[in-house]
Amino acid sequence: MARKSRHSFSLSLSPARFSSLLLFLLLSIPRASAGGHDYGDALRKSILFFEGQRSGRLPPDQRLRWRRDSALHDGASAGVDLTGGYYDAGDNIKFGFPMAFTTTLLSWSVIDFGRNMGGELNNAVKAVKWGTDYLLKATKDVPNALYVQVGDAYSDHNCWERPEDMDTLRTVYKIDRFHPGSDVAGETAAALAAASIVFRYRDPPYSRLLLDRAIKVFDFADRHRGAYSSSLRSAVCPFYCDVNGYQDELLWGAAWLHKASRRREYREYIVRNEVVLRAGDTINEFGWDNKHAGINVLISKEVLMGKANDLVAFKRNADGFICSVLPGISNPQIQYSPGGLLFKAGSCNMQHVTSLSFLLLAYSNYLSHANHAVPCGGSYATPALLKRLAKRQVDYILGDNPLSMSYMVGYGARYPQRIHHRASSLPSVAAHPAHISCKAGSRYYLSPNPNPNLLVGAVVGGPNSSDAFPDSRPFFQESEPTTYVNAPLVGLLAYFWAHP
Ligand SMILES: *[C@@H]1O[C@H](CO)[C@@H](O)[C@H](O)[C@H]1NC(C)=O
Q: Hey, what's the signal peptide range on this chain (predicted)?
């Protein structure tokens, strides 16, 4: 893929007449690459990735064949079945908080863009179900207990081991009335509610089960308020510590429950708690920790459909979010690399790229249907502009960048070879049936060789803010994939496949 010129500003335009920043932006965002990208191929791969992250007993239709069953006794130490679910990234822990967020975003991808997924829709729905089957097990005992993590992160991170060989501590962590966790419980309620929409017509009994459970879990989250990062500090921090607080997950859970159940009480909850739970805070954050931009975009759909004048504050916040991410507007929280990649502080930059781009695209669709544009500093950001911004980020990931490489494993001619991922970097069980112990894996970690197992579809943390990428396992910020990078990307790729 040829390197793109970032500024193709046409000099034939009179600068005085066309001084509007937004018009400038429209002109300076490159058009689709000459050959275009194979978004359908990228979509298929982005979903396949989730099969590589599966924990538990793998089903007969598992397509990523170099993985095997793993962690078949998870939960046993606590007398519960907690097998299944997803490993979050390149390690072998099951962290409930990002797993729930991943499931919520995969569901949102299917809800808004499932119609664009063609033959991949079934695979996307299976990826959602692999998450919800686990979340149903983890929430079975609510309100007495909600299981939020399996595996001791220190013990796991001390080893470089295949999940199939894992002999590290599989400690089970839970929250309950006396050790609350409204953050992880609120996100879990959001995931179950969002997924209930995915299954509404596909599998009505399963959908009802998900919604009933979401209602119970939300009630538990709201009634016993507190942060799991306080209740379980030494286990979950600094890994998936909720730095931002639990208030956003309560609003987020209520927003999804409202969408899924159409019950008045959730609408009233949102209106009543908008200020208390600080919907207008940090409006340009969206990730496993902070849901604010997502809450505002999701609820704005109702406002744009003219059904919710009591919720207009959310639309104002969503508009503020949009204006803050436009390139060229100086914003201390959002920057762009010289090659055009969105940048935010914190590890794994690509999570911000995909989640914020997803919101740009989702909001753009909601605006289009209502024939609206976003007022930003005396001008308007149109739905078309938002789509082009989102597409520019997706195209960067797929190869339109200064290194001309794709950041998705297995897509394009050049992609990351040494991702920070235990299963991918160690020989497969088929290639090396004998156990590889904790420290025996170190030589694979330190090896300069490419990973032997292709984790197809994995999107890594990505380049640094100068567009440089080391392609080296120890640089985990750059080279580690995560499930919550891919979950929103699934929706983006589906849309651009249908609308290249
Ligand atoms: C990015 O990585 C390159 C190559 O390692 C390095 O020269 C550059 O300083 C890094 N940029 C930043 C902003 O860290």
A: 1-34
Strand order in the sheet with 94-95: 94-95, 146-150, 172-175
pLDDT at residue 29 in the model: 54
Q: How many angstroms separate the alpha carbon of residue 353 from the centre of ligand 1?
A: 19
Read off φ and ψ for residue 497, nearest 5 degrees. -65, -45
Q: CB neighbours (10 Å) of residue 412?
A: 18
Atom of ligand 1 lying closest to residue 467 CA: 1
166 in Cβ contact with 436 (< 8 Å): no
CB 378 within 8 A of CB 432: no
| Residue list, ligand 1 pocket, CB within 6 Å | 464-466, 468, 470
- Tokens encoding 373: 């544009």
Contact (Cβ atoms closer than 8 angstroms) between residue 147 and residue 193: no
Distance CA 389, CA 319 (A): 15
Strands (E), 18-175: 94-95, 146-150, 172-175
Q: What size, in residues, is the chain?
A: 500
Structure tokens at 244: 């931002």
Alpha carbon 144 to its chain centroid, in Å, reads 29
The vertex-333 CA angle with 330 and 337, nearest 5°, equals 70
Chain mean position to CA 396: 18
State pLDDT tens for residues 156-205.
999 999 999 999 999 999 999 999 999 999 999 999 999 999 999 999 99
Contact 87, 93 (CB under 8 A): yes
**Amino acid identity, residue 275?**
V
**Alpha helices (runs of H) in 343-482, residue ranges in sequence order:** 349-370, 383-398, 422-425, 442-446, 476-479
Identified catalytic residue from 152, 222, 471, 478: 471
Q: Mean pLDDT over residues 3-8, rounded? A: 23
For 58-154, where are the E strands, in sequence order? 94-95, 146-150
pTM of the predicted model as reported, rounded to 2 decimal places: 0.94
The gap from C-alpha 251 to its chain's centroid, in whole angstroms, comes to 18
Domains (range + CATH), the chain: 15-498 (1.50.10.10)
364 in Cβ contact with 496 (< 8 Å):
no
Say yes or no to pLDDT of 10 above 80. Answer: no
